Structures are given as structure tokens and as C-alpha cells.
């Protein structure tokens, strides 16, 4: 009998060259093998190599709160990877005919960001509806040695946990199997945004390069671009700088507290200096 929240039979079925919606619904994760056309992958890799050499090799704008997220503007070819037909086809199998883009970025572990990323779910950081998925598209080898993603299969069934931050799996009576699938260029993974996931440090020295595209049904008012079908909403709003939508909030209170703490420390330092 399984000790997990899902039947262990699903674990060995999360990767294939054919998408399986039943497996995805059970696990919240699926890896498509060899799904992206080789000429397309080669073009993306050339673009990335040229971009990295010209703009990132000697340093980049590393976000201390999220070091793996690339802040620099992508060249046009890489910025439009999410329009690839293989990605849109799988998104339509999950959401139906009408698909929109929520966000597109790169998440990398290079010489400037080799550290682990704590266990979390993405849905708590999203605006709009929680019915979203990430498409992780590697342009390099991805495995446990270079900081590949680990997924807790089935954990999306718990939904939004009520806060944002590092999840403690020991706080739950129910357990979810952890897997770290290896991927190569041409593969991609689709993950429900409520799935718990993390990544270890890059200890191999081989850069982990992945695009991370978030897609959603086209009835979500946070959609940025229609990818397939028709819009199913008459109004839109931007998820950027979301604290502007609140007169007061947990985030604004925390920001205020941090400012007050900084002021108190400065006052104490000044007083100690005078003494």
C-alpha cells in the first residue's frame, strides 16, 4: 500500500514522448521527451550562447530575493519561445482551446547563482486565478547535479496553502513522492503552479539554463498575450507591482516594519558612535 497521497504507479509514468493528461492531473507534472524540433532547439541555443557571451558572461543583475531569475531583457528569439507549437499544443490539452500567456522568463544556475532554491509553490506569487501551469524548457542538460528541479508529485491537490515562503513538508500528515527528472534540450516539463518544487545547488559547474513560461486559460484577466483560440474575458489588469492595488496589506506592513528596524539600527549605531 502506498504511503503517499497518490498511487506510486504514477511516478514511473511522468515522462514520455506523448503527453498523458491523466498522469498530469494525478501528479501535477509531466515531462515531454524530444518534443521541440531539433532545428528550433539549435536556434535557441545559438541565440542563448551569443546573448550570454555579449551580455551576461562578465556579470549580471542578480536579484537577491530570487537569484536564479534572469532580470536582463531577452533577445527577440528567446523572448518569443513560448509561441512554439509543441508548447501550445500541450497547454491546449490541459486548458482547452483558448490559451493565454501569463509570464515568460529564464531561470538559470550559472557562475553567479549556483545556490539551492527552497521548497515552494508558485501559485501564491501569482495574480488572477490559480489555474496556471509552468512550461520549463531547457537549453542545457538539467539534472540533480546542476540544480535541476525536484517536484513533489500530487502536491497540487492541496491547492494554495495560505501564505508564501518555504514549505515544511513535515508539517503535513500526507506525503508526496519527490522526483528530480533529468531533461535534455528538446524536452520540456509542464507543472501545475500549485505543485511544490525546489532545486538543489549546482555542484557540477555545468550551467543550468531553462525558460520558464506560465500559461493559463484565456478567461483570466491577467493574460498578457493570446496564444490560441479567443479571449474569454472583457477586462484585463496587470500583475506587475501588485502592492499598488492595496491601501494596506501584509507586504506593505512588512516593508514598513523593515524601514522602522533600519531606522532603529541606524539610531543605535549613531548613539554607540557618540558614546
UniProtKB/TrEMBL annotation:
Keyword Ribonucleoprotein on entry: no
UniProt keyword rRNA processing present: no
Gene3D superfamilies recorded: q2cbj1_9rhob like domain
Pfam families: PhyH (PF05721)
Chain ranges passing through the membrane: none
SUPFAM superfamilies: Clavaminate synthase-like
Stated name of the protein: Phytanoyl-CoA dioxygenase
Organism: Bordetella genomosp. 11
Amino acid at each position: 500500500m502506498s504511503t503517499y497521497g497518490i498511487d506510486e504507479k504514477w511516478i514511473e509514468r511522468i515522462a514520455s514522448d506523448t503527453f498523458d493528461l491523466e498522469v498530469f492531473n494525478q501528479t501535477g507534472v509531466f515531462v515531454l521527451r524530444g518534443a521541440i524540433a531539433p532545428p528550433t532547439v539549435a536556434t535557441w541555443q545559438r541565440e542563448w550562447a551569443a546573448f550570454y557571451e555579449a551580455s551576461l558572461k562578465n556579470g549580471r543583475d542578480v536579484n537577491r530575493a530570487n537569484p536564479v531569475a534572469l532580470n536582463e531583457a531577452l533577445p527577440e528569439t528567446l523572448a518569443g519561445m513560448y509561441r512554439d507549437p509543441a508548447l501550445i499544443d500541450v497547454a491546449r490539452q490541459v486548458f482547452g482551446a483558448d490559451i493565454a500567456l501569463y509570464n515568460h522568463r529564464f531561470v538559470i544556475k550559472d557562475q553567479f547563482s549556483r545556490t539551492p532554491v527552497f521548497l515552494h509553490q508558485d501559485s501564491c506569487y501569482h495574480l488572477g486565478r490559480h489555474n496556471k501551469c509552468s512550461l520549463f524548457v531547457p537549453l542545457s542538460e538539467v539534472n540533480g547535479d546542476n540544480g535541476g528541479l525536484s517536484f513533489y508529485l500530487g502536491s497540487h491537490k492541496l491547492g494554495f496553502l495560505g501564505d508564501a515562503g518555504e514549505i515544511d513538508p513535515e508539517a503535513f500528515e500526507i506525503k508526496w513522492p519527490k522526483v528530480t527528472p533529468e531533461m535534455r534540450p528538446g524536452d520540456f516539463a509542464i507543472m501545475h503552479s500549485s505543485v511544490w518544487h525546489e532545486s538543489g545547488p549546482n555542484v557540477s559547474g555545468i550551467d543550468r539554463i531553462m525558460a520558464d513560461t506560465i500559461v493559463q486559460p484565456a478567461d483570466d484577466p491577467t493574460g498578457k498575450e493570446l496564444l490560441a483560440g479567443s479571449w474569454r474575458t472583457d477586462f484585463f489588469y496587470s500583475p506587475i507591482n501588485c502592492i499598488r492595488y492595496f491601501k494596506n496589506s501584509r507586504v506593505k506592513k512588512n516593508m514598513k516594519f523593515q524601514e522602522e528596524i533600519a531606522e532603529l539600527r541606524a539610531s543605535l549605531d549613531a548613539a554607540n558612535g557618540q558614546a
